[in-house]
Amino acid sequence: MMKKRVYQVLGVMSAVVAGGFLYSATFGGDSVDEVDLAAAQETVQEGTLIVRGEGNVTAEPDLAQLRLGVEATDTSADAAQSTVSEKMQTVREQLNSYDIPEENIETATFGVHPYRTGQEGEEQFRAQHILSVEYSEIDKIGELLDDVAAAGANQIQQTRFTLQDKSELEQQALQQAIENTSGKAQAMAESAGKSSGDVIQISESGTQVDIPMQTYETEESAAQDSASGAGTSIEAGQVEITQEVDVVYQLN
Q1: Whole-number Å distance between alpha carbons of 243 and 238
Q2: DSSP-based three-state secondary structure for 99
Q3: Closest Cα partner for 94 from 160, 161, 145?
Q4: Cα angle: 241, vertex 164, 218; to 5 degrees
Q5: Is residue 68 within 8 Å of residue 156, measured between CB atoms?
Q6: How many helices (H) and strands (E) are present in the chain, helices listed first?
Q7: Beta strands in 75-173 (DSSP E)
């Protein structure tokens, strides 16, 4: 997710407005030629120092996103689909026992497709119904996977851990990123025999969210392991949010 927001200090922007550049660009007045545009940009950048800062915040996830379901093959498309439908009904009943809201269960993949095991192989039909499930009780994810596998889910494809609301953590990371530019600005200015002054401009360069994920080499084997009775252990890890900013300081 990339965003670009720019906050301008009023004193600097008023100087640009006085030159006529901002008014023309914003309100569609007389066009500014290239010479005037270059002069305005030079005025803003003259005697400044640009510093990039990064803020990093981690948190325990509070939402799991699962992909699971049923797959069956048969020489008849109807038979394959019937098997999937029967098993899926049991899987849905098991999900309902965990009080998962209906709006948190959606069909991700559904279909029946023909295939052959070889050039001369008999035509087969593969039916598949995969659900996308959101579940907020992280400590019960392993138990849930074991139960749906025992109920007939032979496709357990992926488990992602995330946050229901990232906004507060994004703001914390943004504040940290801005604060981290101060020391850099002072060190850079001192190396040039000057000092850093007021903040003139702040630009958010982007937000990165690293979400822990568990995938499975073979989906059927993952489901079989869950159904074996050994118990599935899931380590959720942490969600990491990184913000980057570019801050323009006055160079004194």
Answers
A1: 16
A2: coil
A3: 145
A4: 80
A5: yes
A6: 7, 9
A7: 105-116, 123-135, 155-162
Structure tokens at 113: 């497709």
Long-range contacts from 40-49, C-beta under 8 angstroms, 24+ separation:
40/16, 43/15, 43/16, 43/19, 44/12, 44/16, 44/200, 47/250, 47/251, 47/252, 48/200, 48/248, 48/249, 48/250, 48/251, 49/185, 49/188, 49/189, 49/196, 49/248, 49/249, 49/250, 49/251
Q: Indicate yes or no: pTM above 0.85.
A: no
**Among candidate residues 137, 169, 184, the one with its CA nearest the CA of residue 241:** 169
- Cβ pair 199, 48 in contact under 8 A: no
Average pLDDT of the chain to the nearest whole number: 81
pLDDT above 80: residue 35: no
Per-residue pLDDT tens over the stretch 188-211: 999 989 999 999 999 998 889 998
Q: Using only C-alpha atoms, what is the Rg of the chain?
A: 28
State the amino acid at position 105 in one-letter form.
I
**Which of 207, 204, 201 minimizes the C-alpha distance to 170?**
207
3-class SS of residue 179: helix
